């Protein structure tokens, strides 16, 4: 009788000191995702720990602590709990990993989450939970990315969630629309096409949102954040700025803004009054 894939993976988990099953998801260039060398080296030793021992180390938050367990390792073991057929291990590892996901999504300012922050965080968490649940029910290689680059994987979930929430917030905000447009225009250093009087026209506003959505991702995200009043830069380290949210320099944000405004200006200042 041959060894089924399920039996093989279970054996790999139980014999971590002998073999760690490789990742199977491919990148766009056709190569396989691989775990960082540090993660590959840690997995066998962590596999020898009792589950209590692993959970104790999973609670260490300081990455410089010699006992710290990289999140990529936790993703590996929570996925392996499927092959252990251990719901208890899954639940305990899930709680530790869920806490890390929540900590990985920043709060905008002053340590207090706004309604928008909460929606972004919830969207990231919900998406991660869906991926985890699907993988636990039936192995899914989409989680391979989280075993290879956990922080980057969460960042991508966050950027996707931010864009969705910002778009919804902009479209649903009846405000004070004029005030928001004026603030965005001031931040952008222009009053066109974000002129407060023009922006107050709902038909124009909808056309503008469609045009912003069509911009390259960094430019689109920058404009959406400007429209809800975020700053490009702040001397207060507790304030979440556009540069921090997009994980880039202030100069890059200004370049995104200027390119976006040039494109939008060409679209809305062509003499077409439709």
Uncertain runs:
1-18, 174-191
Q: Helix segment count? A: 14
Largest sheet composition: none
Terminal CA distance reads: 72 Å
Mean pLDDT: 76
Shape: elongated
| Order of H and E elements | HHHHHHHHHHHHHH
How large is the radius of gyration?
A: 23 Å
- Total count of strands: 0
Percent of residues in beta strands: under 5%
Helix percent band: 55-70%
Global structural class: mainly alpha
What does this entry look like structurally?
- There is one protein chain.
- The protein has 274 residues and is mainly alpha-helical.
- Helix content is 64%, strand content 0%.
- It has 14 helices and no strands.
- The chain has helices at residues 5-14, 37-47, 51-58, 71-84, 87-103, 115-137, 144-148, 150-172, 177-188, 196-199, 202-213, 217-227, 242-246, 250-268.
- α1 (5-14) crosses α4 (71-84), α6 crosses α8 and α12 packs across α14 (250-268).
- The radius of gyration is 23 Å and the shape is elongated.
- Mean pLDDT is 76; it is low at 1-18 and 174-191.
List the helices and strands and how they pair.
Layout: H1 5-14, H2 37-47, H3 51-58, H4 71-84, H5 87-103, H6 115-137, H7 144-148, H8 150-172, H9 177-188, H10 196-199, H11 202-213, H12 217-227, H13 242-246, H14 250-268
């Amino acid at each position: 009788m041959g060894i089924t894939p399920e039996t093989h993976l279970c054996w790999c988990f139980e014999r971590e000191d002998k073999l760690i099953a490789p990742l199977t998801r491919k990148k766009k260039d056709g190569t396989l995702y691989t775990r960082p060398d540090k993660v590959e080296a840690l997995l066998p030793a962590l596999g020898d720990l009792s589950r209590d021992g692993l959970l104790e180390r999973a609670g260490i938050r300081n990455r410089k602590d010699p006992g710290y367990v990289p999140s990529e390792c936790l993703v590996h073991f929570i996925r392996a709990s499927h092959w252990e057929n251990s719901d208890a291990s899954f639940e305990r590892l899930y709680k530790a990993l869920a806490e890390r996901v929540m900590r990985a999504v920043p709060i905008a300012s002053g340590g207090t989450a706004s309604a928008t922050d909460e929606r972004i965080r919830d969207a990231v968490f919900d998406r991660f939970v869906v991926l985890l649940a699907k993988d636990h029910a039936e192995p899914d290689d989409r989680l391979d990315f989280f075993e290879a680059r956990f922080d980057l994987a969460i960042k991508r979930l966050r950027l996707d969630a931010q864009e969705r929430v910002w778009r919804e917030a902009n479209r649903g905000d009846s405000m004070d629309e004029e005030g928001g447009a004026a603030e965005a225009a001031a931040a952008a250093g222009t009053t066109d096409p974000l002129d407060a009087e023009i922006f107050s026209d709902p038909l124009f506003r909808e056309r503008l949102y469609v045009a912003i959505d069509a911009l390259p991702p960094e430019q689109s995200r920058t404009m959406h954040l400007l429209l809800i009043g975020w700053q490009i830069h702040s001397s207060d380290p507790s304030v979440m700025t556009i540069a921090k949210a997009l994980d880039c320099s202030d100069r890059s944000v200004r370049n995104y803004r200027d390119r976006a405004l040039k494109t939008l200006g060409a679209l809305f200042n062509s003499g077409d009054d439709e």
